[in-house]
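Hey, resending since the last one bounced:
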Amino acid sequence: MAAAARARAEPKICEEKLRLGRVFLQALRTVMNLQNEEAAVLMRGAPGLERFDLAIQRARERRAEAKLAYVLHVSRHGC
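The structure tokens again:
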């Protein structure tokens, strides 16, 4: 196969897409970890569930921002 044909056949990797994907995944993990911690506190019957409200809200906002950045990049860049 000619070099030009091989170059067309190989997928191109978009570093920004990968970076944004990692940011989004980390934001997802943060939300899940906070929710898991909240569930553990609830199961133990320990006080302090309210301390999770603001942290989870902020983590969800960061997740939404990261998801939007990822989706917008993919749709604009076509990668």
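DSSP finds three helices and no strands in the chain.

Sorry for the duplicate.
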